[in-house]
Amino acid sequence: MKRQAWYLFLSVSLVILIVCGLSYWAFCQAMRAETNVRYSGMQSVISLQLGKTISGMEMSATNVFNEVEKHLDSPEAVIHALESESNLNPDVRGYFAAFEPNYFKEKGTWFEPYVHHTDSSKFEMTQVGSARHDYTKSPWYVRAKNIKMAFWSDPYYYYDGTNISGHYSTFVKPVFDANNNLACVCGADITFEWLGSELERINNGCRNSQQVNKYRLMRALDFYSMVLHKDGTCLIHPEDKNLPITDNKMLADLDQHNTGFVEMDVAGVPSMVFYGPIDGIDWAVAVVTPLSDLQKPFTYMAIALALLALISMIVTFVICRRI
Length: 323
Description:
It is a single chain. The protein has helices spanning 3-70, 75-85, 139-147, 192-207, 210-213, 248-255, 291-294, 296-322; strands at residues 94-99, 113-117, 123-127, 151-152, 156-158, 166-176, 182-191, 224-229, 234-236, 260-266, 269-277, 283-290. It is of the alpha+beta class. Helix 1 packs across helix 4 (192-207) and helix 1 runs antiparallel to helix 8.
């Protein structure tokens, strides 16, 4: 092949490589934007739906607490109010009313009736207040007494050797009598097992959504979700997928209820974590997806453009030889 043909071949090949390189760069920019929008949007939807579930729990619990407030004339009336309203939301593990010391003199210092599930359909009432369980010193009781408004307690593990032992979070609300004095602190317990099943139900809804699955772009959409406390503690996660938060920016974002994403190893798998707060509670939802799944479109497009460049250069070489 003559020198002029080589010059032509090399010039055209250079143009082909530049065009393919720019095409891949543009594709990468678009795919990164699409990935962030897709998974940030998915995280936002999961947070919103889980937040609605928690808000529904709050409304149901508030109805129970309002009934307690209407029946502060006797301890029997309080117990009846708890028992009569407990079936409104079977997902609540139990309702309690922890009264101020000697509010009912016949009940003494500690009176805390607790109406709770014994199985999937039955409730029973237990008096749990005692010198051994001095609820008046519990953080949730002290906080409710001080701030005089409803809130969610920090997650905790309760153990008493019975079937109600487990990981809990409690929606707490102070209840006042007709003279605006604190009568008791009411609470509704939810278990992390129940919340985990709700999170998985929401995840499955997202996985099977037609809108999510319409443009997979060669990805398996292999994601899962976690619930994080604002201090970085992983509250709910799939088995063997615990996420220890060590990234300072992520910890700051969780504490300040900001959204974001970060690349980190989860259970030994390089992953991308998209996180954001749940409204009304100091928790956040994190959507985790393996980097290997996110990289599939980039890998396939790089191979396709490389093959296209190679074929184009071969065709150019053949044409240049015949000139």
